Amino acid sequence: MPTFDVFRLAQWRAICVVLAAVVLAGCQSVPKGLSAPQIAVLQAHGFQPGDAGWELDMSTKMLFASDESTLSVASREAVMRVGKALAEVGIARLRVDGHTDSAGSDAYNDALSLRRAEVVAQVLVEHAGFLPDAIAVRGLGKRVPASNNRSASGRAENRRVSIVVANQ
Predict the structure, then answer these.
(1) pTM of this prediction exceeds 0.70
(2) Which residue numbers delimit the OmpA-like domain (predicted)?
């Protein structure tokens, strides 16, 4: 009949306990990125998580007229509300992507979409306290449609901006 070495068994048990403690300590470290209150604010304002971060596609809240880069009063107020809420929870860096429908040349749509993004960024700076260099703006033209461009309503949904909070 085999005999057990009680001392050796106690050593192995101690080693296993130490290894388990190290592994569990790694699981309890504070995660990098956005805090729970920041994520709650993003969700409350309609941001959706994606590959690039949390994105608010304002196609339902902030549309532009065809060939326009001017915000309506309602759209301006929506940008101010979102911007102030983000600033209040310490989100200080954003990206604003402008978009267009498919009408017009690529070069024209790229310039128009950039103007749309710049208009939204300016509202965030003037009314929500963001620093100008903390907002990246991009004009994506017609390259990332939110809807089909074959109908008037689809084209209208594509004349929009998206606000992105990058994964930090």
Answers:
(1) yes
(2) 52-168
